Amino acid sequence: MKLICIGRNYTEHIKELENEKPTNPVVFLKPDTSILLKKQPFFIPDFSNDVHHEVEILVKINKVGKHIDKKFAHKYYNEIGLGIDFTARDLQSTLKAKGLPWEKAKAFDGAAVIGKWISKNNFKTVDDINFSLYKNDKIVQQGNTSLMLWKINELIEYVSKYFTLKIGDIIFTGTPAGVGKVVAKDKLKGFIKNQELFSITVK
Fold it and tell me: What is the CA radius of gyration of the chain?
C-alpha cells in the first residue's frame, strides 16, 4: 500500500504558511513505515524541534484503477477516515529553501496517523464533511471538505494519471488552517462531526 498526500488544498492554510497557491494539486508520498501503529504514542523525532500537526480527511481506495475519470471516481472508495500528516516544519523549511524533496520532513516513521473508517454512505455528500482536531481538549483545527481547492473525486482523477491506485492505498486530502507545534504530553483527538476517530499522546 502507499499513502498519497496532497499539499496546499485549503486556501487559508496556504496563507498561514505564506506559500504560493498551486495551479495543480501538490502531491507527495509517504511509505507504509510512516504509519503510526495503533494504540502507540507519537514520538517527536530527535532531528526536529518543530513538528506540526496537520489533520486531514482520508480516503481508502477499494479497487485498482488508472486514468480514472472524475465521474467514475466515486466507485473507487467506500470509506472516509481522518488522520494526521505530522510534519517536521523546521526540516521542511530547510529542504524547501534548497529546492530539495520533502520526504525527510514528511515521511519519517510514525508521521502518518490513520484513525477509524466510516462508510461514505453516512454522508449526504463527501464534499460537505466537517472535521476537527483538538489538542489538550482545545480545538486547534477545523475544516470542511467543501473548502478544498480540489475535491475528493478530482484528486482521484488527478493522482491516478501518475500512479496506479491499488486496493488499500490511502489518500491524505490536505489540511485546513491552524497547524501548529506539538510537544511532549500533548493529547490529540480527531473528529468527523461529533465522532472521535483517533486519540493519541505525544512523547
Answer: 16
